[in-house]
Q: What sequence folds into this?
């Protein structure tokens, strides 16, 4: 075509039109190829997830999980704890079947509350309704009442029609998490996955949201990822994960009696919390934070 333009057998307009058509055809082809590659990779990963004693990695050379196998009984609360990058969140992703193209039906029975809920740049009403798109306004309101969110919403100028902004920028962390909880109530799933659901909240919001979570997960199969052990000590079973393996399993009391990893983490967190409380008391006393009594 360029040769024809030089020889004045075609115009610049003809050349640009050909390039435009070519781009319109090639771009979707590249997109299809890329999607096929991604889907193929996920399908392969899903096969690994179906095995007992799962070994899983995002690449074959670096497994994240090594021989993981456990059963979460119906209605039981299971907590997964351990050091950062130990594989806790990967376990949740496999439960959600992010890597399995054939299990869409499973997701209808599972709800996930992450550390930062995904919020639409839309109204509070529509963000809550995202948990069940067929829910009526009345059902949304009742879900918000159960999540302890209704009074907060009605105190806002536009009530349920308040826009939350991009990524929920107009809401506090506690309000955003309560929207996620209201979604669960609307959806009424069999399984609830909590991934550090209160980690990013201030102390006051954390207490309120934890109570709402206890209420909404009552009688449901619940799997919790937690860093703060005090939030999961009432779980029926606690799995301690380290370097992609489950190294301890039991309830809070039995794991403390074993005296290994969980007991060490509990002791460290308890000492840190106690030290923090002592520092606050000290700053309020006559020593001014020097750690000594008044002169």
A:
């Amino acid at each position: 075509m360029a040769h024809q333009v030089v020889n004045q057998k075609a115009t610049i307009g003809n050349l640009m039109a050909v390039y435009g058509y070519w781009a319109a055809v090639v771009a979707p082809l590249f997109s299809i190829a890329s999607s096929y590659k991604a889907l193929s990779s996920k399908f392969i990963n899903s096969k690994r997830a179906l095995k007992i004693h799962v070994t899983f990695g995002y690449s074959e050379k670096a497994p994240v999980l090594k021989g993981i196998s456990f059963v979460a009984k119906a209605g039981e609360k299971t907590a997964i704890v351990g050091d950062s990058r130990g594989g806790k969140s990967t376990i949740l992703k496999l439960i959600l079947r992010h890597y399995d193209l054939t299990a869409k039906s499973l997701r209808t029975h599972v709800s996930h509350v992450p550390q930062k809920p995904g919020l639409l740049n839309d109204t509070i009403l529509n963000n809550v309704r995202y948990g069940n798109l067929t829910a009526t306004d009345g059902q949304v309101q009742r879900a918000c009442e159960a999540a302890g969110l209704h009074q907060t919403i009605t105190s806002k100028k536009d009530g349920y029609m308040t826009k939350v902004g991009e990524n929920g920028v107009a809401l506090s962390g506690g309000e955003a998490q309560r929207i996620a909880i209201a979604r669960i109530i609307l959806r009424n799933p069999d399984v609830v996955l909590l991934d550090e659901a209160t980690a990013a909240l201030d102390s006051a919001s954390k207490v309120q949201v934890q109570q709402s979570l206890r209420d909404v997960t009552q009688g449901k199969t619940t799997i919790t990822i937690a860093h703060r052990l005090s939030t999961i000590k009432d779980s029926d079973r606690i799995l301690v994960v380290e370097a992609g393996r489950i190294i301890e399993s039991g309830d809070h009391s039995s794991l403390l009696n074993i005296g290994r990893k969980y007991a060490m983490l509990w002791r460290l967190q308890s000492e840190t919390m106690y030290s923090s409380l002592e520092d606050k008391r000290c700053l309020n006393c006559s020593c001014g934070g020097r750690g000594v009594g008044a002169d």
User: Anything to note?
Assistant: Residues 2-36 form one domain. The first strand starts at residue 54 and ends at 56. Residues 42-51, 99-103, 288-295 have pLDDT under 50 and may be disordered.
